[in-house]
Design goal:
The complex is a heterodimer of chains A (279) and B (291). Chain A is an alpha/beta fold and 279 residues long. Chain A is 50% helix and 15% strand. In chain A, helix 1 packs antiparallel against helix 2, helix 1 packs parallel to helix 3 and helix 8 crosses helix 9. Chain B has 291 residues and is α/β, with parallel strands linked by helices. In chain B, 49% of the residues lie in helices and 13% in strands. Chain B has 11 helices and 8 strands. In chain B, strand 2, helix 6 and strand 3 form a beta-alpha-beta unit. In chain B, helix 1 runs antiparallel to helix 4 and helix 3 crosses helix 4. Classes of the chains: A alpha/beta (279), B alpha/beta (291). The interface between A and B is large, with 42 and 47 residues. Bound molecules: guanosine-5'-triphosphate (2 copies) and magnesium ion (2 copies). The site of one magnesium ion has 5 residues of chain B, from helix 5.
Amino acid sequence: FKGKRAFQEAALEQLEEILIEADVGVATTREIIDSLQEKINKEPSLSGSALKEHVKDHILSLLQVGREAATQLPSDALQVVLVVGVNGSGKTTTIAKMAYQLKEEGKKALLCAADTFRAAAIEQLEIWAERVGVGVVKGKSGSDPAAVVFDAIRAAIARGMDFLIIDTAGRLHTKRNLMNELEKIRRIIGREVTGAPQEVLLVLDAMTGQNGISQAEEFLKFSGVTGVVLAKLDGTAKGGVAVAIARSFGLPIKYVGVGEGLDDLLEFSPPEFVEALFS
Amino acid sequence: RLTERLEQVFKRLRGYGKLKEHHIDEALRQIRVVLLEADVNFKVVKEFIAKVKEKSLGERVLESFTPTQQVVKIVRDELIELLGGEKSDLIFSSKAPSILMLVGLQGSGKTTTAGKLGKWLRKRNHSPLLVSTDVHRPAAQEQLKVVAEESGLPVFSDNSSSPLKVCFNSVKIAKREGYDVVVVDTAGRMHVNKELMDELSILKKEIQPTEVLFVADAMTGQDAVRSAKVFNESLDLTGIILTKLDGDARGGAALSIKSVTEKPIKFIGVGERYDDLEPFYPERIVSRILG
Ligand SMILES: Nc1nc2c(ncn2[C@@H]2O[C@H](COP(=O)(O)OP(=O)(O)OP(=O)(O)O)[C@@H](O)[C@H]2O)c(=O)[nH]1
Ligand SMILES: Nc1nc2c(ncn2[C@@H]2O[C@H](COP(=O)(O)OP(=O)(O)OP(=O)(O)O)[C@@H](O)[C@H]2O)c(=O)[nH]1
Ligand SMILES: [Mg+2]
Ligand SMILES: [Mg+2]
């Protein structure tokens, strides 16, 4: 009997290591392992593979959060998608991929180059827009991003667009003035289109550690966030911080980025994600 | 924070009278949590805790009147030693131009750092030339042009589709125009992309840089050891630059990357402007990691 206990302890340690190394984080991992320990106390004969299945189910239930809201009602209003996140996470490239997908679905999309700060940010989005075959509204480099957003909304409505996707400058969530700027952009969107932005996507680099949690917290406060895009999942990082974010804020992962090409954006699949955590 | 956590532990332990060796494990558990929450790699933490345990028992902290201070000092000193060590100046060639190559994952901050490094070099009376070998990312060449313009530096770019050709041409220009350092910006890439990693090692072999600097994002989590290990095995890095430390990422990736590559962290990026580059001081990042 002692052998069984030692074996289970080893199994729990192994599972804990997998979760921590996947960036799930100490707190969320502890919650999962504690609940697993309770199961073991009730059913002392659980096998190693049964324990693993329980962990997978637990994570799946955490990831189910917010997914009921995923079915959007058809609307005649302009659908405004605001894309936010810290520097270099993959926002601009993700927008190109989304525009490509919308075009494939026969939707009319317009892009807004509201990153007026970073070197060649506007040019980067322009090249993508040209490759996809969608229009882009831009302003002068260094101009007020809120003004560009305003112009883009007016243009999208005038041209009868279905979707307007807004690219914003990368910003660290600790920079109050930059977060205020984002809040202002959100206000303007809401003022010009009722109920907009209908989607605010936080693009998160899959290799992000526990800092992802404070990123989600701050962007939720200033721009609002309706979903997470986990970019660069084609590396070796597991993106486990997204589980901690789901648990802390009830934020669903909506898409995953798996490469630098236009078709490298997939709808998030919780079972596939969980399988990959353990591979 | 580590001090508060340890104070609670030792306060509780005081009730047990004479402490046994295993009582130190309670304190070690707290150190482990602090490091994991700071994104230090799981296996790196394991090795680190073993070292701290050995030192703590050796210094008989369980018999000390101030065990918290003693353990915190052991942890801090051990971290500083792991992160510091050899002097981390840039290496130059005796025969100009010296070539500094910037490599790393997508979006880590290489192109921006190229501008920062160029400005840093010019302040120290060097004559740097920026070069972009990124023929893949949309507007990458344009981005480095703007970076160069905004930091008042010369930049070489040609529409040659080969990173190797661009590099050779830039070295020709440097020799002709008297630039003594060429800062080579490369395209971001995944360490698991064999073709792109091979491209980079061929580039290194051909242009023989005196510096191959791995530009890494300070908010990187557990994956930091994996990417750093592959880049190091493939290129034999000469140094690390940790970016975006102007945020609130604890920066445990610094310890992970240092311990798996054993290469010096030479600079940190602390903002988006071209003055936002600082030399790396272990003490500062240790305070961040320990909360
Ligand atoms: N491998 C891989 N690379 C990606 C993915 N998404 C984006 N990238 C790359 O990551 C780098 C940064 O992407 P950007 O789209 O410029 O990121 P950003 O968030 O707009 O950056 P800033 O505007 O500077 O904050 C580029 O080299 C992209 O090609 C992905 O899913 N996989
Ligand atoms: N806050 C902050 N932002 C930084 C720092 N270094 C770079 N950035 C930002 O990070 C984003 C990505 O920087 P880039 O220089 O384009 O990164 P890169 O490694 O060249 O990207 P790829 O070429 O696509 O691999 C940009 O928004 C930069 O302004 C830093 O130290 N602090
Ligand atoms: Mg961008
Ligand atoms: Mg670049």
